[in-house]
Amino acid sequence: MIKILVGAVTLVSLLMPIQASAEEEPKASAEALLHQMDEASRDLSYELSYILIKKNSIEPLRYRHAVEDGKTYAHLIYLSGPPREVIQRGREVSYFEPGLDPFTIDSNKMVAPLPPVMKTNIHELSDFYDFISMGRAREAGVACDVIRVAPKDGTRYSYLLWVDTRSHLVMRADLLDRDGEPLEQYRAVSYVVNPKVGEVLKNLSTVDLPAVVQLPPQPQADLGWSVNWLPQGFESVSRNRHRLVLTERPVESKMYSDGLFSLSIYVSDADNYTVREQLVRQGRRTLHSNVVGDKEVTVVGDIPPATARRIAESITFAKAPVVSPTAEGTKP
Question: In what residue span(s) does the MucB/RseB C-terminal domain sit (predicted)?
């Protein structure tokens, strides 16, 4: 590991332009540093190798990114286990997973294990999160500004970020629960910022990728229930009715996001096998379900258990209209 880090520092120092030391540069505000991080992650040509550390696993990954001729190219590859990768070419994102046929969707964002703060609207987050400068430290062999992204209402998780003072890329991102304990960590082990990364990724324009899947339009279904409490900033992303693949059980769902975290709410008919109430947290993901009348309500998302419970308890159902026998039998 030491050899890897030393090699990374040497390579970065050779490829990046010489700048004044971090100690000599004027210190920007925490929010300004996050804007610099956002611009760097979107605009630079770079390669980042990192490990994703969870409670019971360590996943090594490599991410490459560049913008060539105004078009974004990116490539994420898993470095252990079965071959898995994600390729972005403009608004086309292709997924290659074991046991599934490769497919491509129309999107400008990967669904992949990357720090969510890398490509997030920092200005919008500032309404619901505080950005706190925590000083400077070293990570992956380079000087970093340490910034905490903390929710103003205390109903969400927070991030602690190590941002390289030179490239402004994220070298480390710790997801923290409300007690400050880490739920997962992204930690860089080596990185390169160089235009040649863009030259390599531009070759993706000639690669034969799966055709874009034409997804049918998702109508925003008018559901007979409402959510009466959500943490500030969470907005509706989608709502629909569908059947579960394995059981054919009908279910209604709504999805919400605040730009950094997301959650989904599912409502279905309760039956004899429904558990009256359960709460499960695995890493960043919480599942809370309970029974309201004859309905099972389930909240799943990257939120603390207390927040999931409060959301589930806030759901109310519209009463079905009562039709009197006289009115029903009356003819026009």
Answer: 221-315
